[in-house]
Design brief:
Elements: H1 13-22, E1 35-40, E2 46-52, E3 63-67, H2 77-88, E4 92-96, H3 117-133, E5 139-144, H4 146-158, E6 169-172, H5 178-184, H6 188-212, H7 219-224, H8 228-239, H9 245-252, E7 265-268, E8 291-294, H10 315-325
Parallel strand pairs: 3-4, 3-5, 5-6, 6-7, 7-8
Antiparallel strand pairs: 1-2, 2-4
Length: 331
């Protein structure tokens, strides 16, 4: 993936971000079929987990856990592309939905955030327990955008303890420096297009949470938020124990913890990602020797389309999925 080049008909970071998400092919034949499980959480809430598994598989298959991005789900283009890759390459895929992203309103007075490593820890350990009971040969995990930062934050927090849970992790186009990325998405074209898109779904979810838990936050300030900085300051930060947006973005960023990662880890970031300034990307001196950095010049934000118009999304799941499975070892 380090040598990825976008097709000639798909120039620039914005087009490489928007076109694949809307129009490129995510699967070869039929869309993936998901099987849902609802898992209880330690705080008496729930998380919905969607599985894409080979029908009538004769042997236990590896499991790749995919944490979606901001406002994503198992219906996201990256989730569907990974599911299609998994079906063709002997690997089951599981997409745990961050709270509020599965189509059902969660119960607790919280949602999810970019550094939610406690939630990631609970989920990964549940996956590991389930996989052991099913005699699966391995568990690996990847995270897209926000999900990748939360996953890398977890890996850095856990250090060597992560070796008992998963065998390798990967982040895909993740804002590992949340402050840099948060300010970037609040400016210019990003503010008018991507920020508006995110807030269009985030605000109604916040208001539904307020109806469920009256007095949780200031409704007028949430509805008046013009960017993610303002939204996080009123909703995301205080609901999850942070003082304000600056405190949240600083403490939730994975980059400052990546020197502690002690399992094979891959961080894939395109240098022309509109959300993530190239100057903020991790460098070898900022991460442990267990971390591989793939930073192609092109790809946009979770784009990486290939082939003739309208393009397909096989290249990224193939590269990342194979890298993860290469790190399988016997327990």
């Amino acid at each position: 993936m380090t040598d990825y080049s976008a097709p000639s008909w798909l120039p620039g970071g914005h087009l490489q971000t928007i076109w694949p998400a809307l129009w490129s092919r995510r699967f070869d034949a039929a869309p993936p079929v998901w099987r849902r499980e609802r898992w209880l959480t330690p705080d008496d809430d729930f998380v919905d987990v969607d599985f894409c598994e080979a029908p009538a598989a004769q042997t236990a298959r590896p499991l790749l856990i995919l944490f979606h991005g901001l406002e994503g789900s198992s219906s996201s283009h990256s989730s569907q592309a990974f599911a299609d890759w998994g079906l063709q390459h002997g690997c089951d895929i599981a997409v745990p939905h961050f709270r509020g992203c599965s189509g059902s309103l969660n119960l607790a007075p919280r949602a999810y955030h970019s550094g939610d490593h406690e939630e990631v820890d609970h989920l990964l350990r549940k996956f590991k327990q389930q996989a052991s009971a099913q005699n699966r040969p391995c568990v690996v995990a990847a995270g897209v955008s926000l999900g990748g930062n939360a996953l890398m934050r977890w890996a850095g927090e856990q250090g060597q303890a992560a070796q008992q849970v998963v065998q390798a992790v990967a982040s895909i186009c993740s804002p590992l420096d949340l402050t840099a990325s948060g300010h970037a998405i609040g400016k210019g074209f990003n503010r008018h297009v991507y920020t508006r898109m995110f807030l269009r779904s985030m605000k109604p979810k916040a208001m539904a949470k307020l109806k469920q838990h009256p007095g949780l936050f200031d409704a007028q300030k949430v509805m008046a938020a013009k960017d993610l900085y303002e939204f996080d300051d009123v909703f995301t930060a205080p609901l999850h124990g942070f003082k304000n947006t600056d405190d949240y973005w600083q403490k939730a960023s994975a980059l400052q913890h990546m020197g502690n990662i002690a399992i094979p880890a891959l961080a894939l970031n395109a240098k022309n990602d509109p959300f993530i300034p190239s100057y903020s990307l991790p460098t070898p001196d900022k991460v442990s020797t267990h971390v591989s950095l793939w930073q192609p010049d092109e790809g946009g934000h979770v784009g990486f389309a290939s082939g003739f118009l309208p393009g397909h999304l096989k290249a990224m799941p193939q590269a990342v999925g194979q890298w993860l499975l290469q790190h399988i070892h016997s327990d």
